[in-house]
């Protein structure tokens, strides 16, 4: 008996917020707009003020981050100077200049560096792919492919 009364109380408490939520649901979905022009005008002004405040906050945040990044760059530069390091852009520029200087008199484009072992081996010393695959096959299959 006690369980049933507790259950009723819980259901009553759950129904009340749902009743309130459904009552305001039309306004949430865009229906039942305020008909008073003064209220609408006031809401519009408040929204414009809010948007302006958001823009201002965003600008302040960006300024703050610009200042922090400038401070970081000063620290980075002091570390580069201390240890004799170069910026990534400077390294790339030097490498590009070296490549251009190497092929200055050439009529063709600069050759890219080829890693060792890629295409510079003799074809006679290499085994064919078929021979390599045959090594891993069982004996009867090897004989069949060799014939």
Automatic annotation (TrEMBL):
Region (Disordered): 27-75
Keyword Hydrolase: no
PANTHER family the UniProt entry points to: COMPLEXIN, COMPLEXIN-2
Subcellular localization: Cytoplasm, Cytosol; Nucleus; Perikaryon; Presynapse
InterPro entries: Synaphin
Any GO MF annotation of the entry: syntaxin binding
Biological processes, Gene Ontology terms: regulation of neurotransmitter secretion; synaptic vesicle exocytosis
Keyword Transport: yes
Subunit structure: Binds to the SNARE core complex containing SNAP25, VAMP2 and STX1A.
Protein name in UniProt: Complexin-2
Gene Ontology annotations for the cellular component aspect, listed alphabetically: cytosol; nucleus; perikaryon; SNARE complex; terminal bouton
Species, as recorded: Oncorhynchus tshawytscha
Taxonomy, superkingdom: Eukaryota
Record key words, sorted: Cell projection, Coiled coil, Cytoplasm, Exocytosis, Neurotransmitter transport, Nucleus, Synapse, Transport
Family per record: Belongs to the complexin/synaphin family.
